[in-house]
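Reopening closed ticket. The problem is back. First fold of the pair:
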Amino acid sequence: MKLQYLLGICLVLVISGLPRFALGETEYFAVFMEGKKVGYSIQSRVVSEGIVTTAAEVSITVSRADVPMSMNIKDTSIETMDGKPLGFELVQDFGIMAAKVVGIVDERGVVGVTTTSMGMEQKSEFEWPGGAVMAEGLRLLQLKQGLKEGTSYTAKVFEPTMLQAIDAEIRIGPKRNVDMFGRVVALTEVTIRLLVPMAGEITMTRYVDDELRVQKSVEFAAGIQIEMIACGKEFALGENDVFEFVDKMVLSAPAPLSDLRSAKSVSYHLSPSWKGGSFTIPGSDNQRVWPVDGGKVVVTVEPLAAPRRAGFPYRGRDKEILEAMKATRFLQSDSEEIKELARRAVGTTKDAGEAVKRIESFVGEYITEKTFSVGYASAAEVAASRVGDCSEHAVLVAAMCRAVRIPARVVSGIVYTDEFGGREDVFVGHAWVESYIGDKWVGLDASGVAGGYGAGHIALASGNGNPEDFLGLISSLGRFKIDEVMVNKGR
């Protein structure tokens, strides 16, 4: 059970920022969760020889079951004075894992990307999304649009953390008196709605001064109120409060549930956490979703068994499934170390179902130190360290499946457990894997939580194991509660 929530929140704070700076200026912000200071953000914009460099750094530390957890992300955009993209740099530090992504945009509009982690480099290319802007381009657009109440406009913003463009809808609201550490300031309210691929909608409110400098921001993620408030350097970088994250990771079950692992299926009746609220739950081969009145949803989880005598490698042409066989920056299935682990696990079997079960069992034993202390690690780092919890189990399982040409994806969601953090009968954040066998996606869970994958798992998002995949998780968490659970034991 991992702090995917914290990782997603950290990404939200990075991607949601508006350009807000004058020439050569650095500004500091204190980051609060539920009123407690948990970190800082440093924002800067520098112009030199006609090149604009805009940087946003976020650092957050929280406590999970008395274990401190820190995450740091720095996102840098490089552009011309008129907002033409030239390149970007992204540095992510999630505990034992640190990765650097550098992108250079050439004259043809092709982006060359180099990802470095644990001394290993991965290179890739993609075409720059048409019409997309970065920090300076968005700043110029905002200056052009101004702060007249009722003004609304859209932008396509390239986000280095996701290596893709995000559609943004921006609306200028009224001036309001805003509390800034006891000092009341008249600021203009700006509402930003981000339409994030695979994650849905993220909405935040910014309060800006007449020069478009953000002074305060307020948003909700995973049911947590998050604020960034402009302040002095000393306070921003100063001591944090202790913010215990466990309660925010836990969703109460309506009643104790027994032996869900052996259930044929389980139906969960979900409703919005507040009147008029909404949420989205994805369907899959293991999970069917039906909307009902009042914004409620029924999710029936019926785990599939792996088809017998299904061969591998996958030889079909489905683009989505082929994508689930590629090496990525967090699933380095092309590394010799992971290929060797996969060969050791699979042995001589030619049956795909047997192969993934062997990988699942192998990873469960291979990771010898089960700990919450790792922020988030890639498959290659897990292979080297043999340390982690559910997320580390998931990325290694997925990478090993891909290494033997079995499609696999990392799934994040919640899972039922009898006890967690001193609370009984709860659902907690979790990560596992689905592998494509025959013609179905089959669940795998090497972490040992709940005895393996079963009907107690509710999926909220899936992807390639990249940090941005967890945005789908936090856009759903906190938005729903579980009203009723119906267990079908079958025969």
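Second fold of the pair, where the issue appears:
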Amino acid sequence: MNDIVENRTFDEIQIGDQASLTRALDQETFEALATLTGNFSLFDLDPGPGDTSMISQGGGQTSWSAALFASLAGTRLPGLGSVTQHIDIRLHRPVAIGVPVTATATVKAKRAETGIVVLDCQATDPTGAEIATGTLEVRAPREKMRHSLIDMPKVQLRRDNRYLELLKACEGLPALGCAVVHPCSPDALLGAIEAAEHKLITPILIGPEDKIRSIAEQERLDISGYRLVPAEHSHHSAELAVAMVLAGEAQTLMKGSLHTDELLGQVVKKVGGLRTERRISHCFLLNVPTYPRPIIVTDAAINIQPTLEDKVNIIQNAIELAHAIGIAEPKVAILSAVETVTNKIPSTLEAGALCKMADRGQIVGGILDGPLAFDNAIDEQAAHTKGIHSPVAGKADILVVPDLEAGNMLAKQLTFMANAEAAGIVLGARAPIILTSRADSAQTRLASCAVAVLFAEAQRKGAALQKARG
């Protein structure tokens, strides 16, 4: 049987009656409060050493305390059917995010002629220190009401502008010379031009000249300011693009309207390719509106059934990408169907081995844990319920999938069912490779280019530091 909530009528209420509740203002609830009220000054508008938001001075707690007091009146004393007519709140001190606050309401007076009950309210922190005090005037119900409690809907915030942070991080960085391989579709050509207009890349358009010019004219795109290198067909375009990177004429590649295998075949060829000692792998940088931070999924596009050695490279590539976008010590979750090691599921054995390899310094720059099921990797409550104590569980920045099939399905599910934007990049070659899709939005195409710019800058700085050290 469900729990029952029951009100207290005006006649039942006595002077001195009391009710209380305890709640914590967590980060997501705080952001929801700011969003609902439209009070953007509660957010830190200029992240840095000094917090510019009102929350650091307790600016958000007045409305929070008032909401708790109003909730007491509406659900407990008097409860169902009551109407709050006046609230007078005084804030005494800030309360940190995540600290439980106990709100207590005590009946101070009753006004028989109006049916008003006056409540003295107090909010305290766990030490008993007063956070806020106030007075509520509430019109109490005259009739008795009893109802089953209902499950409240969960508020999930959509964070749609996260890619803007990537673009902002690229401000002041040099545009990358970018070999745009076979941009022979409106989407491919438009993506390159938009990235150029945002000063992310300096495009070199490689492909059949007549076709590229025809598309530009059709889409009313001015390409007169960009270098155009004629190529006979898509395979030739890929060959020329790789040669340009080797010659130093371009610092990155962007996939146009050719097949991914056709481009990567030229990248990985033993003679005249862009291979390094590391295996190439693909990373999706996902902006999931309901997840509190960007997340990297790898590998969902290149390595079909990666070996243990392949996964070492896949993870290292992803960690270096995380560093490039500002995650100093990324948390890496190695996914499987379960969170325990069992020889019945080979990916759990590999996860255990990879974690031990990280302990031995064979993978560096991140914190690894696995095997973890998907829910345990991204949801702290799910991890807590299963008794998983880990610095990664529930807080993952990188999700390492068992194989391409799992990764591809995961990325597409998040894209098409959770409205995630998925920027794509290939790493492990001599230059980052921007992979775009016809289904990509303009924002996603720009984000993919921004990621390449940030990664190339991180590589440049790393090489300069290594040279300085001798």
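Update: turned out to be a display glitch only; the data is intact. The mean pLDDT is 88. The chain is about 35% helix and 25% strand. Please close again.
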